[in-house]
Write a structure and sequence with these properties.
The structure holds two protein chains of two kinds.
Chain A: H1 2-20, H2 24-38, H3 54-74, H4 78-93, H5 105-118, H6 122-130, H7 140-154, H8 157-163, H9 173-194, H10 200-207, H11 212-220
Chain B: H1 10-27, H2 30-43, H3 49-59, H4 65-75, H5 102-118, H6 122-138, H7 145-161, H8 169-181, H9 185-201, H10 205-214, H11 223-239, H12 243-256, H13 262-279, H14 285-288, H15 298-309, H16 312-321, H17 323-329, H18 332-353, E1 356-358, H19 359-365, H20 373-387, E2 392-395, E3 400-403, H21 414-437, H22 451-470
Antiparallel strand pairs in B: 1-3, 2-3
Chain lengths: ~220, ~475
Amino acid sequence: MEAKFADAEKLFDRLKSAFVAQDYETSITLLSQLKVKLTEFSGLPPLYRQTPTQVQELVLARSILEYAVILSVKTEDQESFERHFLQLKPYYTDTRQLISRSSEEYPILGLNLLRLLVQNRIAEFHTELELLPPEALDDVCLKHAIELEQSFMEGAYNRVLNARQAFPHETYLYFMDLLAKTVRDEIAGCSEKAFDFLTVADAKKILMFSSDQELLKYAAE
Amino acid sequence: MFAFLPLRCVYTNLKNVAALVEKGVVSKEMRLMVRAMRHVMSIRRKLKGPTVVSFLKSTLPSGSDALSRLLPYVSKEEEIGMDIDTPSSALHVSSHKQSILPELEIFTYLLVLIFLLDKKSYDKAKACSSGAIKRLQQLNRRTLDVLAARIYFYYSYSYELTNSLAEIRGTLLLLHRTATLHHDELGQETLLNLLLRNYLHYNLYDQAEKLRSKTQRAESHSHQQLCRYLYYLGRIRTIQLEYTDAKDSLMQAARKAPLSASGFRIQCNKWAAIVRLLLGEIPERTTFMQPGMRKALRPYFELTNAVRIGDLELFRQVAEKFSSTFYTDKTHNLIVRLRHNVIRTGLRNISISYSRISLTDVAAKLHLVSATPVDDAESIVTKAIRDGGIDAIVDHANGWMQSKETGDIYSTQEPQLAFHSRIAFCLNTHNEAVKALRFPPNAHKKELESAEKRRERQQQEQELAKHIAEEDDDEF
């Protein structure tokens, strides 16, 4: 039992170093190997058997899955993000008595909220929101996602685009870019109805483009 | 019938109820069991320890393990000064029975449970109810359904009062499966409601919805359970942003609930008010002024005011002032969603009252607090225009918003369409009423009833009428 655990830990260290070196292919292969190793531990969900190393197993499994989630953001793979996040969720909810809270919990929850917002799954966004305890709402990452949703609903799209500069975590960049695209489409639709005419400079400012060429390219679409 | 004189000892009443239960089992009539339950509810306040002990001793055969399990729960309550009411001699008959009807045994479990819950010894009630559930799982009799449904309810209730609802989720699911296999419809309904309540207690709306969409529901056997189901359904729909469905369910639940269930009605009304606000309609003042609910609904009344005026600042103040109430009601997240409605209403008021207004003034009037209020205002206005909330155009160069002239509405198609929908509705109702009046096609071919059959039918009708008249009381 201990030997298996030590093996898994060594493999995990290799994963971490590959990740830091931004070598994503090796990371993915290492991750699959780690997942196979994880199935051998019986202290994890859904079994939760009481073994002497259960707490360490839980902590290790949780860290592995957190890395998997962040990896899928870096490789821009939304389905694997969803899969890994769903596997990670029981570690946040059911294991609260067994292990202490992870430091990455709130950033990852915020990432998930952002993903739901980008994919326009607002009903699930709100359902997830209900699951958060009140003190979680003060956390920077979560507050960021929640305020984004509010601004989106209200129509204050400029606030959304400004928020892109003020992201709390580097992993948020990917989703913020996707969101920016959606927002631009929305702004364009609204401007079409609302403005009778608009100068190029003003359009540039509203749509937050940095140069005239981008604006003209967008207008051609 | 039985004489329930309040001065007579409670013991006699209990004995009478037990006899009623037996009669119900023998004649296989659920109505008698339901009536027995109602009588128990009416005397539950007068139950005292010694009474229960003597009742247990006389009903259950001595030496049965039910008796040995139940007595410790009750006798510990009243150790000192046991002052047993002397039962009248005529009722000693049942004390020497060797085997006892399972219904009576379950009934004694139920009685002890109710007694413990009233005395607020929740841990004992928890243990007692677990024992009752284990015993119930060994039995499979349809006549037990009414009593079993009560026991499930108190089982869940005792766990809820001790904050350990999550533990029984597995058991409740197992019981639900068993009830479905046995075609125990009342038990199925009760258990589904208890499961939904369990999930909603922990805010697990996703799982609650999955469960609810997959179970089959037969027609409702119990009015109270139907009201509860509608309320839980309404809550799930609200969180999933389906406000129209939610509004229907919640309004139905509020209307159907019995008048004495004031706590339940208050909750339904709170949620119904919020859903109506989210839909964009303002509930009338009278809904908040109903007798008995005025104080509880006060926060929601002030909230409605803020939304009606469209004042973001007032809205923020009200939300902060009553935030603890909203947290306990679990409506906090919904209130946050209302902010959008407040802004929309404010915008609409502005666009109606001004033909042309600069965006900085719009921002000031809406109390938009942010780093770039003018840009915010511009974006919000453009979105509102696109959604059809207001009729205006924005002039970016000069930085103002200009409302369109609202033409004469009678010259458009609008009145015609409104009339058309109303006429269609009235005609539909008329058609359905006419259809309902028609006799079934082969009625004239049935033979005429003989005098004896008629007498029997009349007797049944009388009993039914009496039963319906008595059904108006509270069950739970």
